[in-house]
Amino acid sequence: MIAESVHMSQETVREETLDNIVEDVRRDFPILTQTINGEPLVYLDNAATSQKPRSVIDRVCSYYEEHHSNVHRGVHSLSQRATEMYEAARETVRGFIGAASTAEIVFTRGTTEALNLVAQSYARPRLGSDSEILVTMMEHHSNIVPWQILSGQTGAKVVVTPIHEDGTLDLDAFEQLLGDKTCIVAVAYISNSLGTINPVEHIIERSHARDIPVVIDGAQAVPHMPVHVGELDCDFFAFSGHKMFGPTGIGVLYGKETLLDAMPPYQGGGDMIESVSFSGTTFNKLPHKFEAGTPNIAGTIGLGAAVDYIQNVGYDFIQKHEARLLTTALSKLSELESIRFIGQAAERASVISFLLGDSHPYDVGSVLDKMGIAVRTGHHCTQPLMDHYQIPGTVRASFAFYNTIEEIDRLCSALRKAASLLQ
Amino acid sequence: MTPIGTIAERAGTIVDEFALFDDWMGKYEHLIEMGRSLPLIDEAYKTNEYLVRGCQAQVWLKAEAEGDLIRLTADSDALITKGLIAILLCILDRQPADAVVGADFSFLDEIGMKEHLSPTRKNGLDSMIKQIRLYAALLSHSKEVS
After folding, report:
1. What is the ipTM of this complex?
2. Catalytic residue among B7, B14, B55, B63
3. b/e for B89-113, b at 16 or more Cβ within 10 A?
4. pLDDT digits (tens, 9 = 90+) for B93-133
5. Last residue of a domain, one of A311, A336, A355
6. Which of B56, B59, B122 to mutate to test the interface with A (most CBs of A within 10 A)?
7. Catalytic (active site) residue B90
8. Chain A contact present for B6, CB below 8 A
9. Which of these three, A311, A345, A362, is where a domain ends?
C-alpha cells in the first residue's frame, strides 16, 4: 500500500521513479486489475468519476462494520464514536483545502448540490430582476442550470463569458461583462470537457475589485492540483468526493464564514435546528445549519480517507506524472491522421477531448470499449460548449495518476483500429 | 433492397449471417456494412418530429403505409446505430403492419449483438423498437377504421 510504503508528498519526485510509483499506486486500486471484454481495463474516464483505493473502501466498510450509528444526537458510545469520525473528516477536509475553520466546510451530496445551495441560499435573496449572474461558456450544466432556475425565480440574467477557439477564457470580454449589475461570478476552475485551467486568481481579484463574490466549481481541480481556498480568497468553492477517489454521494461546499453565517438554511429538517416549536424555530450553528437530516456519514468518512490517500501519494507526484501523461498522450495522439483536438489551452489538466475524422464519438467509444478502454463520449454535460464548437460531442480521455504510458499506447492503437473500422 | 419472407424467415437469415463471424470485430464490420444498405429517410424528414427519443446518437425514423404493408425509412449520424436500425428495417420493412405489432424480437438476442452493446445502445435499440411498434399499431388501427 502506498500509504505505508511510500512517503513522498513533501519530497521531490525524480523522473525515473515515476513509473515505479505508478506501479505501486495501481496496486492500491482493486478495480484496475480486471479485464473488460477480455482485455485489461484501461480506465480513462476519470473526469466523470475516479476509481477508489483500498484504503477508502476499507474505511467505509469498517465504519459500517464497527462504528455505525447516528451522529450529533446520541449519548451512547457508538454515536459518539461515529460523530467523532464524521467531524474528524470535516477537519481533514478543512486542512486539505486550507479553510480557516470547520464552520466553513459544509457537506453536500456533491458539487451539484453545493452550487444549488449557493444559488438558492446566498444569491436568491440578493438578486433582483436587473441583476446579472456571470458564468462562462465552458461551464458544466451543474454550474449553468442552478443559475437559470434562479433567473426564472428572480428575473436576473445569466450572462456568459465567451471563450477563444483554443478553449481559453476571453478575459477581455470577462472584464467588460463584469459590471455594476453583476451580483455573482460562477466559474469552473478546470473545464471538464476541455481540461482548460482557468485563471481563477485573476477572476477573483477582478471580481473582488468590484465587491462581487465568486463561486468556484472545483470538481475537476482537486483530483489534480493542490487547492488553498484561503490563498485563492474565493467566496465559495464546491467539489465532489467521487472525482477525487472518494465515495459517490458526498461533496463539499466551502464558504467564507461571514457569508455562510448570514445565509438562510437551504433545507429544513433534523440536525440543522437548535430548537423547534410551532411558534418558531431557531437554527443550529455553522456548518450544521446547512446539513439537514441524517448526513451521508459513511461517505463523509470515506472522503476523509480519500484526502488522506491523496496527501500520502502527494500532489508532487500527481502533478509530475499527470503532466507527463498529458504531454505523451498529446504527442502520440497527434500522430493519428484523422484526429482533431477540441480545446488546446496551454494551461490544462490531463483531460483530452477529440474527434476522429467524421466518426461519431458514440461509435468510437463503443469500439474502444470492445478493446477494454473506458472513455467518455458525448457532450459531457456541457451542451452550450459543444454548440459553440458546432459538434454533437467529443471523445474524452481523462487521466488520473494511476494511468500509465503503456495505457496511452493501448489507446492510440485502439483508435487506429477504430479509424479503420469506422472510416 | 428489402428481402422477401416473413419476419421470422428474414430474422433467421440475419441470425445465420451474423453466426459466420465469431469475433466482435467481424460482427461490427458486418453491422456497419448493413448500415450502408439502410433505406434512407428523405432529408426533408430529418426533423424533431421524426427523431427517436432515448438514443445518444441522433436517429430519425419514418413509417408509411403501402397498401397493407408498412414502409420504414431511417437514418442516424452514428454508424453502429445505423447498422442496428438496418437490422430492424431489413426484417420489418414491407411487412404487414399487424405482423410488426406482434413481432417477436428475440432474434436480436440470437444475433448475439445485444451482448456487444452498451446499456445506452440497448436503451436506444429499445426506443427504436418501441417507435416502430407504435407506428405499426397506428397504421394497423387506421386500416381497421377505414
Report:
1. 0.85
2. B55
3. bbbbbbbbbbbbbebebebbeebeb
4. 999 999 998 888 888 888 877 666 777 777 788 888 888 99
5. A311
6. B56
7. no
8. no
9. A311
